[in-house]
Amino acid sequence: MKLTVRSSTISEGEWDQFILAESPWAFFQSFAWGETQLLEKVAVARWEFLLDDRKIAQAQTILVKAKRGTFLHVRHGPVVNRELVNDNLLWRQILEFLAAEAKKENAWFCRIGPLLANTQETQRLFANLGVRPAPIHAMDAEYTWVLRLNEAEETILANMRKTTRYLIRQAEKQGVVVKASHQIEDFLRLYNQTAKRQRFVPHRGIEAEFAVFSKRGQAELLVASHSGQQLAAAVILYFGKQAIYHHGASIVSKISASYLLQWHAIKEAKKRGLEWYNFWGIAPEDKLEHPWQGITLFKKGFGGELRSFVHAHDLPVSPLYPVSATIEAVRKRLKHY
């Protein structure tokens, strides 16, 4: 098996078609996400891997230049044909190519995060490839909570935690109003307050993300208000058959606006004919001090199920890799991830 690799020049539709056919959860491999990174002045490359002129894999890479070191990041990828996803030789050739690209960029390592089911078979595959588990917490929705949308609204409500259902109805009685907005500034104002209150580093690029996905009809900003005051907001992104609760923000209030906001987002996803509502990442059950415990309880209250994907792995290409790995491991421990 000898691979041919080419820099991709295919259309957005063709690129996403392969992603959705082989790894439909792989949001960060979407063409639009790459365009978001380009808007943020991040170096992006798209690669196609072919065997006898048949495409069997794709990879969208970004070059991350951080204080802890430069690395080539393949978030939610590479995406490999389902029939070949456990082929050791194929993966070795893909990794060999990515390692060479990382070296060209003077990167310290290449980080991959394909959304493969976290099974023993997948873990054995990666153990045999010579890559090592990334010294970071389960980010990029490796451990995520999703809700099937094939049931009637009444059934979805009935399957929610009793408290969640009560707070949704209470917000309706209190007169909370949820509306779509095109003013990303509304969200950012609440988001910055949330970040300060919960002591986390705000995500960069939300404004660019919203601009890129809105242009494609793949984003919606929902804002929940009471008596004219904005209490909560959420950025919902659409990719394939899923709606993704990608960013949320709120202020401290006795009014349960966030619950009604999520219920509106779920109903909108159903109206669009989507199959899944993706609440995004949650805390692992065995991590009782994890900083996401509160938001995890909130998300699980709406009903749903867990999706667990294999953890991201690193392929070191520089003797400087241990420096970056040590910094990330210490951060993880200090933040109780």
Q: What number of structural domains do the residues give? A: 2
CATH superfamily of the largest domain: Gcn5-related N-acetyltransferase (GNAT)
Number of helices: 11
Overall pLDDT metric = 95
Distance between the termini: 40 Å
Q: Report the principal-axis shape.
A: globular
CATH topology of the largest domain: Aminopeptidase
Give the low-confidence spans.
none
Number of strands: 15
> Gyration radius, to the nearest Å?
21 Å
Any idea what the CATH architecture of the largest domain is?
3-Layer(aba) Sandwich
User: Fraction of residues in helices?
Assistant: 25-40%
Report on the biggest sheet. 8 strands, mixed
H/E element order: EHHEEEEHEHEEHHEHHEEEHEHEEH
Counting copies of identical and different chains, the oligomeric state is: single chain
* Strand content range: 25-35%
Give the class-level CATH name of the largest domain.
Answer: Alpha Beta
| Structural class based on helices, strands and sheet pairing | alpha+beta
Describe this structure in words.
- The relative contact order is 0.16.
- The two termini are 40 Å apart.
- α2 (31-39) packs across α8.
- This protein has helices at residues 12-22, 31-39, 88-104, 120-128, 153-158, 162-174, 184-198, 206-215, 257-271, 293-300, 321-334; strands spanning 4-7, 44-51, 54-66, 69-74, 79-80, 109-112, 132-133, 143-148, 177-181, 219-226, 229-239, 242-250, 276-281, 305-308, 313-316.
- It folds into two domains: 4-139 and 309-334, Aminopeptidase (3-Layer(aba) Sandwich); 143-308, 3-Layer(aba) Sandwich (Aminopeptidase).
- It has 337 residues and is of the alpha+beta class.
- The chain is globular and about 65 Å long.
